[in-house]
């Protein structure tokens, strides 16, 4: 029998978000100090939740009760979804994949280039041409099914970032059935753009949460860092295992506990191994990346999940100003080399 965890995932995200919003507003009430506008130490805040990009999006602004900017952020999410979605008819990615257009906008080009960079960096463990395989899986279906082996093997022959070439804004494929899927990187990119938009509009303290991709603007109104929790995988209360104080940074988690199903006693989650077409099989439950830009965190959390603990950790340790927390299936926490020097994490 299939077991769908999607709705439960939402409840977890909401619970989790609520837990942190409550703890943040508590902290803000306790320390009404600074007098800068937008950072005025007041307990004013406004938060709204909506649903885009197949996920729960929550944006919280501090030091204001005006929600009009949040509505504009939601409009941005909607625009980006209409451009970057693999499944929405008429999106730039849909048109590329259906070969009805071969050029993309400058922004989509930037994202495809970033995706290619991480595909190369991870030696294809992360691969934006996973589309032929990922489109055979539907983890959000009422009754998800495992694709048949033959179709997956056939799809696999069309996966490979080297099949893509760029000439300015023109994208071409050496294999006519290769499909682009930006699902592992788009939310991070969009979070970065929302942050730019809010910052341009004078916001100095905010939290952008795109279904577990959390990006901060500045610090809490009292000047202290935001305290972002890394959820204990599969915990029904969404209890944090680790709390990381961050200002202005991104905290992105890729885990196997939000989109999965079971069939014939076997567990299937949504991070695929581009070498097999099946979900990555290793001892990881989640990978969280701390980075300045959310697009890097989104790409690397998926890439590291696919690479596994040892290779993923080596990759992170080779990068400047990128930190990671891996959780293995024995619920052990593994920190990247310099993380504990850089962040005063706690394990509640
Ligand atoms: P989430 O969407 O839950 O935040 P991720 O950022 O890890 O999770 O992205 C998972 C999505 O990325 C999948 O739904 C699929 O569209 C795509 N994907 C799955 N496996 C890979 C992979 N190995 N490389 C690139 N993209 C992938
Ligand atoms: Mg990702």
Rounded mean pLDDT score: 90
The fraction of residues assigned to DSSP E strands is 15-25%
What is the count of β-strands? 14
Rounded to an integer in angstroms, the radius of gyration calculated over CA atoms is: 20 Å
Instruction: Give the N-terminus to C-terminus distance in angstroms.
Output: 36 Å
| H-E string | HEEHHHHHEEHEEEEEEEEHHEEH
Give the names of the bound compounds. Answer: adenosine-5'-diphosphate, magnesium ion
Main sheet record: 8 strands, antiparallel
Determine the structural class based on helices, strands and strand pairing: alpha+beta
Specify the number of helices.
Answer: 10
User: Segments where pLDDT lies below 50 for 5+ residues?
Assistant: 1-39
